[in-house]
Amino acid sequence: MEAVQFNKLIKSVKLGKLVGNARYLHNSAFHAIPPELKDFIILIANALKIPDSDWNIIKLHTQQFRLSYLNYPQFYDDSYPALHNSITVDLDNKTQKIADYTATENTPILHRKELFISPDDEHYAEFTSITAEGEAAGLYENSRIIGFKKSWERVIHQHGYQLVDGRLFRLSAVINAATPDNKIDRHKTAIQRQSLSTPMKALAKHGYLDGEYTVFDYGCGLGDDLKELEAHGIDAAGWDPTHRPEVDRFTCDLVNIGFVINVIEDREERIEAVQLAFELAEKLLVISAMIAGEAHIQKFTPYKDGVITSLNTFQKYFSQSELQAFIENTLDENAIAVGPGIFFVFKDKLEEQLFLADRQKRQHNWKQITTRPTSNKEKFELVYVENEQLFKEFWNTCLALGRIPANDEFSESAKIKTLVGSHQKTFTLLDSLFEHNEFAQAEKYCKEDLLVYFSLSQFDKRKPYTQLPDQLQRDVKAFFGNYNNAIAIARELLFSIADTELITETSLAAQQILPASTLLANHSLTFHKDFIDLLPAVLRIYIGCGIQLYGDIEGIQLIKIHFHSGKVSFMGYAGFNDSPLPLLKERIKVKLTQQQVDYFDYVEEYAQQPLYYKSHYLTEDYPNYKKQVSFDKKIALFLPANTRYGLRLDALQTILDNNQTEIKGFRFYNKK
Q1: Alpha-carbon distance 172 to 154, whole Å?
Q2: Domain-by-domain residue ranges, the chain?
Q3: Structural Rg of the chain based on CA atoms
Q4: Cα(205)–Cα(656) distance, rounded to whole angstroms?
Q5: In 3-state terms, what secondary structure has residue 19?
Q6: How large a percentage of the chain has pLDDT more than 90?
Q7: Shortest CA distance to 27 belongs to which of 66, 54, 62, 64?
Q8: Residues 536, 506: contact at Cβ < 8 Å?
């Protein structure tokens, strides 16, 4: 099969999960793709002797003539299965790349498994419910950070949930009791959380947490929801049999019994809890419980009408319809679904009708036409004064990126949009308030940083655009338009370091802007490594190539750019930070044209070379700077003129002895 036909067949595939320039499909769904494509996939696997047991997901590259055979052994068993190994076949170059992830703790994982299979698959409904569960919990709000196991677990924790036996839940105990024959650890079900729980988010979404209503959390666990509500000025209280048993239960406008009934192993007790919670509600009761399909439930040890989890907690998993029927039979009221496993039950029937009617209304953004016209800038200045810290943080993010941040690059993006409308509009208004050239300078620096990065990457294997992190892809688009433009400019910069005249000219200009350095006429420029970032891009690349050839410069303090020989030297000194005369311990000379590294060791006593005039490489804020300046003036009285590097330590000691002088720290003493 040729590449043209391959790409044409892939474009005809509508099933599978599309991510970037690739479509992922489970092999159980091969009956839904063109037979020629299916046969080709299997033909390549057989030709490369890839056993059927070593792959179950095929990655179809839409922009390249490639196939990737991915192995997720627990695809059907785990809610978010981990990648064990992959084999990527480059059909153009007739090569394959094998990757093994079994020894990696932070492995890539799958989400939205229903997209990988056919809708007629018996697992489709279960996979869909797992995805809906995560969406309801707000876990997919930033899809760029959930592709790996540890990142996913961190997001789950940050949203106040725990992954138990493949399912998400936030549980609170109702009564700290245990069955006589099987002790159930209900106290383990209260999970610490940094944001509102899903049922509370449902209340907020529908406008019930605007401060108008009182809230009671029935089975509040550790009370994280209460803390968040109180922080927003909402009158909220809660009771929990384990963590807040001493609190009285009293009526409120809104009552939440969130993920409580599914941890009560006794059905009658479960019914009683719902009835008690409903009695406390004056307007609305929110009831939520864990939802799961039969295939998931069968994985656990049955206990009464539920199961025992791996944490030794009881779980009564419901289906959506079963939960609705349970609520309606228990309360003899309508249960209105507002999310997977979340129902509203209204005691106030007028409020119920208003709620149902409002759900059907189309939204309009009406323009107010009765107020005095005000310019956008004037209106923004008022908003800015009230939210100064927020806008300063946004502006600093713009400066750090050198461009307008994407939504997931600024944590308060939603608030910015509420106040102003968009990141672009906010930036335009802020740009008129702050120093005119501040952002232009930041943009220039960030663009240069990216050019240095791409230029140095040419020393290694060039990365295709699709392998760049999301932020770099955004940078490329903002600064260069596309990846090819960026690489072309970067390659030209890389080649330019061979131009000795350019290196000389740029070094002379750099010496004027560096806060400290020494210039040896027509030979070299020497400076502290802390000032690398202040150099023009071509010199940063020149030095960067040397670092890549040598390696780590952790123990290096000074860098020397040689003008005409295509060399860069790195010098490391013993006692550089403390001694007024630090001793050279190593010097690395990198010949860029030959890509050769010469190493010189100065550990022998006879070869010890002090660094003279250390103050020439320091700024005024450096520790003991003034003492160093004074020391350098005094030591100059003992040194002969016109020596390039100064005397060796033994020669200096001879001169000092002849002058009956000794050095202690930064001070000179007369021996007489």
Answers
A1: 21
A2: 3-116, 162-358, 376-434, 440-496, 500-664
A3: 34
A4: 81
A5: strand
A6: 30
A7: 54
A8: yes
Backbone angles phi, psi at 559, to 5 degrees: -125, 135
User: By the 8 A CB rule, do 255 and 284 touch?
Assistant: yes
Is the model more confident about 260 or about 598? 260
pLDDT, one tens digit per residue, over 326-380 is 999 899 888 888 877 889 999 888 788 777 766 654 333 323 232 333 345 566 7
DSSP lists the bridge partners of residue 87 as: 69, 98
Fold annotation for 162-358: Rossmann fold (3.40.50)
Return d(Cα 292, Cα 318) in angstroms, integer: 6
Contact of 630 with 667, CB cutoff 8 Å: no
C-alpha distance from residue 656 to each of 633, 634, 637 (Å): 15, 12, 11
Q: What whole-number distance in Å separates Cα of residue 349 and Cα of residue 533?
A: 67
Give CA–CA dist 466/456, Å, rounded. 18
* Residues 137/168, Cβ–Cβ less than 8 Å: yes
d(CA 397, CA 401): 6
pTM for this prediction: 0.45
469: left (phi over 0), alpha (psi -120 to 50) or beta: beta
d(CA 217, CA 193): 15
Up-side HSE of residue 196: CA atoms within 13 Å toward CB?
Answer: 17
CA 69 to chain CA centroid, nearest Å: 27
Structure tokens at 618: 């320091």
Handedness of CA 271, 272, 277, 281 (dihedral sign): positive
CA of residue 350 relative to chain centroid, distance:
46
SS3 annotation, 250-306: CCEEEEEEECCHHHCCCHHHHHHHHHHHHHHEEEEEEEECCECCHHHHCCCEEECCE
Q: Which two tokens stand for residue 396?
A: 């600093």
Helix axes 438-457, 388-401, angle to 10 degrees: 40
